[in-house]
Automatic annotation (TrEMBL):
It comes from Termes comis. Keywords: Electron transport, Membrane, Mitochondrion, NAD, Respiratory chain, Translocase, Transmembrane, Transmembrane helix, Transport, Ubiquinone. Residues 1-103 form the NADH:ubiquinone oxidoreductase chain 4 N-terminal domain. Pfam families: Oxidored_q5_N, Proton_antipo_M. This is NADH-ubiquinone oxidoreductase chain 4. GO terms for biological process: ATP synthesis coupled electron transport; electron transport coupled proton transport. Core subunit of the mitochondrial membrane respiratory chain NADH dehydrogenase (Complex I) that is believed to belong to the minimal assembly required for catalysis. Complex I functions in the transfer of electrons from NADH to the respiratory chain. The immediate electron acceptor for the enzyme is believed to be ubiquinone. Core subunit of the mitochondrial membrane respiratory chain NADH dehydrogenase (Complex I) which catalyzes electron transfer from NADH through the respiratory chain, using ubiquinone as an electron acceptor. Essential for the catalytic activity and assembly of complex I. The keyword Hydrolase does not apply. Coiled coil: none annotated. It catalyses: a ubiquinone + NADH + 5 H(+)(in) = a ubiquinol + NAD(+) + 4 H(+)(out). GO terms for cellular component: mitochondrial membrane. The gene is nad4. It is an enzyme of class 7 (translocase).
């Protein structure tokens, strides 16, 4: 584990040199591919030290973090081209990668909490430093206040665990059900529900996405939302008995909220806002699957987290590609794009199909598993799950058809059809998303 961490740390001096942008990008690709060959073919912890370790859950999310951070650099070519503090930008991206790597490989609850909160600081720098509108300050404050205030009870809960059990190692807490109490249960999971985010505590996410640059939106949708799901998977072995009692509250709230958010998506005219709200709808199913505490629910939630990280990140890249050309994210301006950018319409279709869980994407595997686990938990959820799946397809088709078809905006004359860098960027989102389903044991058979 330490060799990859040292590699990332030693990349930071290269940020001083302005001409080393593509070298750093190539080295990040290299470390991602090397990490791919360290897949743990066992169902316990490996690479253990006093602080860091890795199992199959950690491996998948660390690899997703490395992959999305490489694509962030590739998508932010305009920062390098305009010399807009490009050295500091790449430094922030590398620091964020290190924080995420340490978060997912921590084997202690306290170190996990520290790195979990520290990953918000580089994200805040991305939003405040390279955001587009002055409202980015308000979006940054929303991000900090929602996540930090919700995390304070988690710190109290971690200290209570240490006081009661004398240990904070994750694999030593499994199966220990001596910690009981409704207040303790809520303290331990509320921070993760805000981070995912769950309906009613999701207001920070659309504003952060709308004001963030493309790199900020990619890392928010691709990895930072998954921190909440990862945290729930880690703390539920301690809260197993209480989870059965309170699961109905969170499942009902998340699924009904996901349905409401799906209806909100149908009324959006901002590209990034629509994709951000669709993330809330998808993560509501992830919350429901984890709260069932069943084998298929937990495994399918993990599969959908990985799939959503790649799919939503690709959709944010597409919205940024049109924004760079037309200077607007409004669907009233970005319509009829198939007339102006026919080659890019194919990528809109492919990623939109993945977003509504069309085969052979990993989203299909995750959603089928979640539907079966939730219906087996309670058949009463069948009606709301049907509506949730229907509106998921409806707002995705609304996004695709409204942006690609119809007459294009009369104020536009021509634009670039697309660069090789952009096609490569979109391919590197779409290809793993459809390739992983050929080896599903990476995402499901690890419990």
């Amino acid at each position: 584990m330490l060799k990859f961490l040292c590699f990332l740390i030693f990349l930071t001096p290269l940020c001083v040199f302005s001409g080393f942008w593509w070298l750093i990008c190539s080295l990040l690709f290299f470390v991602s591919f090397v990490y791919m060959f360290f897949f743990p073919y066992f169902f316990c912890w490996g690479g253990l030290g006093y602080i860091f370790g890795c199992d199959l859950i950690s491996y998948g999310l660390i690899f997703l973090s490395l992959w999305i951070c490489v694509l962030m650099v590739l998508a932010s070519e305009s920062v390098f081209r305009l010399s807009y503090f490009s050295g500091f930008f790449i430094f922030v991206v590398i620091v964020l990668t290190i924080m995420l790597y340490c978060t997912f490989s921590s084997i202690g609850l306290l170190s996990f909490y520290i790195f979990f909160e520290s990953s918000l600081i580089p994200t805040l720098f991305l939003i405040l430093g390279w955001g587009y509108q002055p409202e980015r300050v308000q979006a940054g404050i929303y991000l900090l206040f929602y996540t930090l205030l919700a995390s304070l009870p988690l710190l109290v809960g971690i200290l209570f665990v240490y006081n009661s059990l004398g240990s904070l190692c994750l694999f030593m807490l499994c199966g220990n059900s001596s910690l009981v109490g409704g207040l303790f249960y809520v303290c331990m999971i509320f921070a993760f529900l805000v981070s995912m985010p769950m309906f009613m505590v999701h207001l920070w996410l659309p504003s952060a996405h709308v004001e963030a640059p493309v790199s900020g939106s990619m890392i928010l949708a691709g990895v930072l939302l998954k921190l909440g799901g990862y945290g729930l998977l880690r703390v539920f072995p301690v809260l197993f008995k209480f989870g059965f009692s309170f699961g109905i509250v969170w499942i009902s709230l998340s699924l009904v909220g996901g349905l409401f958010v799906s209806l909100v998506c149908m009324r959006q005219t901002d590209l990034k806002s629509l994709i951000a709200y669709s993330s809330v709808a998808h993560m509501s199913m992830v919350i429901g699957g984890i709260m069932t505490l069943s084998y298929w629910g937990v495994c399918s939630s993990f599969a959908l987290m990985v799939a959503h990280g790649l799919c939503s990140s690709g959709l944010f890249c597409l919205s940024n590609i049109t924004y760079e050309r037309f200077g607007s994210r409004s669907l009233l301006v970005n319509k009829g794009l198939i007339n102006l950018m026919p080659s890019m319409a194919m990528w809109w279709f492919l990623l939109s199909a993945c977003n509504m869980a069309a085969p052979p994407s990993l989203n299909l595997l995750g959603e089928i598993g979640l539907l079966s686990s939730l219906v087996s938990w309670s058949w009463c959820l069948m009606f709301i799950l049907v509506l949730l799946s229907f509106f998921s397809a409806a707002y995705t088709l609304y996004l695709y058809s409204y942006s690609q078809h119809g007459s294009f905006y009369s104020g536009l004359y021509s634009c670039s059809l697309g660069y090789v860098r952009e096609f490569l960027l979109l391919f590197l989102h779409w290809f793993p998303l459809n390739l992983i389903i050929l080896k599903v044991d990476v995402t499901v058979f690890w419990v």
